[in-house]
Amino acid sequence: MVRPMFIAHSDLRNIITDDPDETGKIRITNFSADKIRPSSYDFRVGKQYICDKSCRIVSFDQDRSLTIFPGQKCTVKTLEEVYMPRSRNISGIVTSSARLSLEGLSSVSTLIDPNWEGGSLFITVTNNGPYPIKIRNGTTICRAVFFEHAGEKITPLTAELMNTCIDNLTKNYKWQKRKRLYLWGAYAVVSSIIAGISYMFGNTNLATIVAGFLFFIGNRVLDNIERFTLLSP
């Protein structure tokens, strides 16, 4: 059994290449030698990101910045593309950048599978700080460490996997949006009936108060209904 070995220093520099003919190494396009650290490689912000619930991929120019507000989550596509060795004996772990973490921006740790040949990485970051954080195309967004282990033949993972995930998320968002509209319609009908009953009894002020109160708590009621439907078998 081969014990996993952490790759660092000169071993890391020797195992990374941008030459497509060197299939026994980690190929990184848009490779920059100064992004190799003693024990990791720093990945940079690419030109595409996803920041809204619709999972719509947005492109931005190098001169434009992306602002991530407190509590907001965004998925950023890396400038570099990654193709793991054909020997399938190296894996990677994506971690947060220390500098960005100090500002409050943390990335979700994820794996770079030994059979990954899908190109750019999709890195999800969250602003945990109290202030908006701006990032630009080409700035460091995360870092990855690599491990060497026993290799075996595995079917390559390509960009189609991420495209399928994004398509599924988009379809789910559209369905959730339609369901929300249906719930609002049903809620409006019930609220109108309740307010109408109050009006029929000759109390116009009560009807107005009831209608306003039901509208005010509408989002909270619908959130609880959606939560209940998700938890129900």
Distance between the termini: 43 Å
What would the principal axes of the Cα set say about the shape?
elongated
Order of secondary-structure elements: EHEEEEEEEHEEEEEHHH
Mean pLDDT: 80
Secondary structure tally, helices: 5
Low-pLDDT runs: none
How does the helix and strand content classify structurally?
Answer: alpha+beta
CA gyration radius, whole angstroms:
25 Å
| Largest sheet data | 11 strands, mixed
- Report the sheet-strand fraction: 25-35%
| Number of E-type strands | 13
Helix content: 25-40%
How would you explain this protein's 3D organization?
This protein has 233 residues and is an alpha+beta fold. The chain has five helices and 13 strands. Strands 1, 2, 3, 4, 5, 7, 8, 9, 10, 11 and 13 form an eleven-stranded mixed sheet that branches. A two-stranded antiparallel sheet has the order 6-12. A hairpin with a 7-residue loop joins strand 4 and strand 5. Helix 3 runs antiparallel to helix 4.
Task: Quickly list its features.
two-stranded antiparallel ribbon; eleven-stranded mixed β-sheet; alpha+beta; elongated; 5 helices; 233 residues; 30% strand; 13 strands; single chain
Strand-helix topology:
Elements: E1 5-7, H1 9-15, E2 16-17, E3 26-29, E4 41-50, E5 58-59, E6 65-68, E7 73-83, E8 90-96, H2 98-103, E9 105-107, E10 110-112, E11 119-127, E12 133-136, E13 140-148, H3 159-200, H4 204-216, H5 218-231
Parallel strand pairs: 2-3
Antiparallel strand pairs: 1-13, 3-7, 4-5, 4-7, 4-13, 6-12, 7-11, 8-10, 8-13, 9-11
Helix pairs in contact: 3-4
